[in-house]
Amino acid sequence: MLSKVFLGLVVSVGVWFSSFSNAQMDVQLAKRYGDEKGAYPVTDYLVSEKYDGIRGIWTGTELLSRQGKPIHAPAWFIQALPKGVWLDGELWSKHHDFQFVASAVTKDEPIDSQWHKIHYMVFDAPDYEHNFAERSQRYVRIVESIHTPFVKAIKQFTVPDNQTLSHVLDEYVKKGAEGLVLHRKAAMFQSGRSGNLLKLKPYMDDEATVIGKTLGQGKYKGMLGALIVEMPSGTQFKIGTGFTDEERANPPHIGDVITYQYHGFTKRGIPRFASFMRVRYPVKEPLVTKPSSVDKVSSTASK
Which cofactor does it need (predicted)? Predict the structure, then answer.
C-alpha cells in the first residue's frame, strides 16, 4: 500500500541529508504505548518489530551509541555502511541474545568473530524535512542499494485497529520479539520522547542507574541482597528480585545502567514490583565495592 502511495517519490541522497548530516546528533526515544493511547488512532502509525539490541546511529562517517559515544566496530563493518547518509537502527544478532551483543559492541577492541554475528537493523533515515512515512521508504532504498547482508531494513506495516495490534503483538512475542514499535506516519523528526514514537511490550520496563547495594540475608548471606537504583527523575528505590545466583555473587557495578521490569507505580511514584532484567549500559570504569549492610537509600526509596 505504501509503495503505491510513494511510488513517484525519487529524491537524491545528497538532497535528503544535506541539512541533517552536519547537525549535532539528536536521538528519538520511544514512549510506552499505554502512555499515549487514544492520542492518535492506531491507523496513524507504522508498526514494526522492536529489536532487543544496542542502539546504533550512523552519521555517514562514524557509528555512535545512543549517548553519542563511538562504537568500535571492525573496519570492514564501517566500510560497508553508506557514506554521507544518516541512519538510525539497532545492532542485533538474534532473539534473546542481548548480553552477547552488549558485550561485543561495547568492546574498545572489536572481535571480528563476534561482529560477524551482528546485524545493523535500520529503522530510520532521519532528517528535519520529511515525515516518517517518507523516511521509511527512503531507508529501505538506501539499504537495498548497498547490497550488504548484515545491514537490513526493518519492515514497517499498518494495522486497522487496537484488537489487531494486540494480536500482532502476541504473535511477535511468541516468535521471540521484545515487542512492537509504533511510529506516527505524519511525524517529522523530533529528538527526545513524544507520542510520535511509541513502544508496546507485554510488560512495562525502564532504565535506572545503580547507586548502591545491600547485603543478602539467609541463603544469600555474603551476596547481593538488593540494588539501590536512581531513576532519571532522581527517585531512588531498591530492586531485590530477578537476579540469578551468579548475578547475586557478581552483581552489577555502581554506575551501571540497568533495565528492570515493573507493573505500574505506587502513590509515591515508585515502580511497583520492580524486578531486575539485565545490565543495559555497563560503566566503563567500575567502582569496586561490596554490598553494604547499611541501607543508605534516600527517604524516597521503597521499603
Answer: a divalent metal cation
Contact 65, 55 (CB under 8 A): yes
pLDDT in tens, 223-244: 999 999 999 999 999 999 999 9
The partner residues of 55 in beta bridges, in order of sequence, read 90
Domains assigned to the chain? 2-200 (3.30.470.30), 204-281 (2.40.50.140)
| Own/partner long-range contacts of 11-15 (Cβ < 8 Å, ≥24 apart) | 11/138, 13/82, 13/84, 13/85, 13/142, 14/84
For 284, phi then psi, to 5°, come to: -70, -40
pLDDT at 124 over 80: yes
Please give the backbone phi and psi of residue 190, each rounded to the nearest 5 degrees, phi first.
Answer: -145, 120
Catalytic residue of the set 4, 50, 107, 117? 50
Mean pLDDT, residues 244-254 taken together: 95
Q: Is the dihedral angle over the CA atoms 110, 111, 112, 118 positive or is it negative?
A: negative
**pTM value > 0.85:** no
> What are the φ/ψ torsions at residue 290 (nearest 5 degrees)?
-110, 150
Top pLDDT among 194 and 195 is at 195
Q: How many helices (H) and strands (E) does the chain have?
A: 9, 14
In angstroms, the first-to-last Cα distance of the chain is 53
Query: Residue 77: which H helix or E strand, with range?
Result: helix 75-80
